[in-house]
Design a protein that fits this description.
Elements (H helix, E strand, L loop, with lengths): L16 H12 L1 H39 L4 E5 L5 H10 L3 E10 L2 E9 L7 E2 L5 E2 L6 E4 L11 E6 L6 E9 L6 E5 H7 L7 E4 L12 E6 H44 L1 H9 L4 H38 L11 H24 L6 H6 L3
Parallel strand pairs: 3-9, 6-8
Antiparallel strand pairs: 1-10, 1-11, 2-3, 2-7, 2-10, 4-5, 6-9, 7-8
Helix pairs in contact: 1-7, 2-5, 2-7, 2-8, 5-8, 7-8
Length: 367
Amino acid sequence: MRKILFERFRFWDKLRFGTKWNIRDLSRHKSRSAMTLFGIVGCMVLMVGGLGMRDTMSGFLDLLDEDISNYTTKVNLIDDADLKQSKALCEELDGDWESLSGISLDGDTVTLDIVHNPGGLLNIIDEDNNRLALSDEGVYLCLRLKDKAKIGDEIEFSPYGSKDAYKATVIGYNRSVMTESVTMSEALADKLGLDYSISSIYTNRKADEIKSNDLIAGKQDKAQLMETFNSFVQIMDSMVIILVVAAVILGVVVLYNLGIMSYVERSRELATLKVLGFRNRAIGKLLISQNIWLTVIGVIIGLPAGVGVLQWLLTALAGEYEMKLMLGVLTYSVSILLTFSVSLLVGLMVARKNKKIDMVEALKGTE
């Protein structure tokens, strides 16, 4: 065979025999090596994507439960509720409130979110999931509207169904949980002269402690909402288990088949090594070490590939929640350990076949 590129460098002569043998073998069988690498990368993508999805959803629910929603009950008010009466009810319930209404922004219909939250029962968060203290100097665009304007730019919007136009300066971005929204404080809304009504009141009182009122359209217990989300997470856990099992099966099937193919292709070479005095254990190490090399490369490629695929899925399928990708150390550790375990297991299975090789038949196979 022709000399490979590495053989032209001075460090080549200092390498061990097993290293030289594996490098030459990889260069001779590029297609098989590429397919092995593809199987390992696919295994990593499935594991990182499945486990990372679980981490991201759990992190989102923790954020929603602990940082955004600190209330006990959400009280929904009737449409066009009287503003003074609504504020009086809010003070009676010691709560925070928000007003949601439709506006036209650059031809698109989005939500105007006016927030009054001195009690910290309903919080607004920034891009890094930190709580945001609303300023009265301008508005905040959600991340999905980030391309509409830069910080410092002035935007113009009109309430839905109205010809009135209002201008405000963009002073930041926030992570919106549900809607495409422009968020502002109560003080700024009053300063601009906006006509609005309170949509919801957030309070720490239990639903059965809140007296009926003509303004109240319904009550929503936060605990019940979180139970619904947790039920969804339990369903997701089953999906994650399926993905991880599928990743392991993919790794075993692909690596084992390619390993057997490699063994058949190299039977003459392996028989030659045995004739030269190499023991089965030493030859087995050669076979396993090549799998480990490819696994290391596959893990290096598969980790960012898995994160990229998961980020694409979040944007494409759950963009309305503006989730932030969250992967824990355990996800990376389990993905790497399982992939290496599969590679090592398959390597051992293939290496055991070396004991049964017929040296005479293998050496005469080319005649």
